[in-house]
Amino acid sequence: MMVSELSAERRPGIRPRPTLGRRLDAAARRVLPVGFTALAILLLSAPLGLPEQEALLPGTVLASVFFWSVFRPPSMPGWAVFGLGLLSDLLGYAPPGLTIVILLLVHGVGIAGRHGLSRQGFLLMWLVFLSVASAATLLDWTARSAFALRLLPVQPALFQLALAAGLYPLLSALFTWAHRTVADPSRA
Amino acid sequence: MIRLSILTRQALAKLTLPLLLLLACGLVVLGQADRRVAERARVAVSDALAPLYGLMARPLSGLRDAGGEAQHLVDVAAENERLRAENMRLRRWYNVAVALQAENAQLKDQLHWMPDPAPSFVTARAVADTGGVYARSLLVSLPGDVSISKGEVAVDASGLMGRVTEVGTRSARILLINDITSRVPVTLTGSHASAMMVGTNNATPRLMYFPEDVHPAEGERVVTSSEADALPAGLPVGTVHYERPGMPVVEPFAALDRPGIVRLFDYGLTDIVPPEAAARVGPRPAGRGAVGPVPGAPGGAAAPVAAPPSFPASHGASGEPAVTPSLPVLPIRGFSKPAIGRG
């Protein structure tokens, strides 16, 4: 984040004076993706009484981390992904650290493929996300089964994956809008 | 700010992710090596969030109540009719109960019956359903001056909900009876046979390990058994239901999916090994002076059922409920050893 800030400062061009308000605005826009994800984790662990609330959480977090890693990596840095994983691990019953590993891997995939991916259309992005989410769910299920020393039921994992796949278009629309408007620091 | 060359900065940026990944893997290993660290961190987070969730729970429950109220207004006439019929039925049962109570008192008098000690309890509000896909658990918020211990029994208005597994200063976590690691010794009231109620993460826990010659009847009441001294005898749990032939499940009385107010009873039966979450079954670090067998250890079936929650499951063995001859027969408090068979 610091790196991009410095490079932005060094870029030539005319820009408005960085007043306190403007800097606060830019900072708020920069933390919006991480803030949204953290809020989603907190809210989806709260007693909202939504149907299948606990299965919604992994898909939401995966989609958010993947999207922002591809389209705006400075707003979804590695340490923030680490923190998000830690938060969802501590709020749930997952083996500690597992969610962190999965989210970091997804983040890594997003970062690595972002030059190609960010130019692709929505449908291909969705397919890529689907394969990433499948791999993440497989890893999750395998690790949990390994730690539990028995095969856990597959249906919840599949259901979770299906929810993630179904959620992605909705979240993608929301994030694309945010990416162009409220989460864009250069519009501050 | 230290001025670094662009190359160094780029190298550092590339190193961050692998370093973080290593750290995360370290956390996984640490979490598996010493579960108490993770448990403590979890309790700390739950403690911090319990007041927040408590704040959220109130308007939400208000909203839900309003919705329910509106629904009630719609079908109030039918409800009245039903209630009148039920009232009549209950009045008849009341008379029966009074007669039975008198008879019971009389019989107990003649038997020099030692009454069970009355348990102390606290009532708390369930503030969050913190289980994931692989776990069914519940967070209750507690005022700071209440002392709760692990192994206390959680009951709602209609039946057994679960047991306390983790205790913080302002919150306690309850493992529900439908969690996949939950094992509850139960008694079938019709045949007086003991069985194990095994959670499946679905709404209805399975009934397993009942004697071979006993067939749980559809609709038969299931109550807790004091076998293994983990629970008091006779707490209502649910009724037997067959989803398919040969596979009885228990339909719990307690509203496990809509937890509201939870009572936590202290029966003083705390010397059980607390249940482990699905993801955390494995040998516990010794040092707590644990009484029960090591959960998940091979050959745990031969160990006494001092730790019913961690009784190893034999999933996938066959569709038929297995009968375990190795279950030691403990004396059941409350009544003498029942004749196995259909009562």
TrEMBL record, chain A:
Alphabetic keyword roster: Membrane, Transmembrane, Transmembrane helix
Spans through the membrane: 31-48, 91-110, 122-139, 159-178
Protein name, as recorded: Rod shape-determining protein MreD
From TrEMBL, chain B:
Keyword Metal-binding annotated: no
Source organism superkingdom: Bacteria
The entry's keywords: Cell shape
InterPro entries associated with the record: Cell/Rod_1, Cell/Rod_MreC_2, MreC, MreC_beta-barrel_core
Domain spans labelled Rod shape-determining protein MreC beta-barrel core: 137-242
PROSITE patterns noted in UniProt: PROKAR_LIPOPROTEIN
Region (Disordered): 300-343
Family annotation (NCBIfam families): PRK13922.12-1
Similarity section: Belongs to the MreC family.
Name this polypeptide is given: Cell shape-determining protein MreC
Gene from which the chain derives: mreC
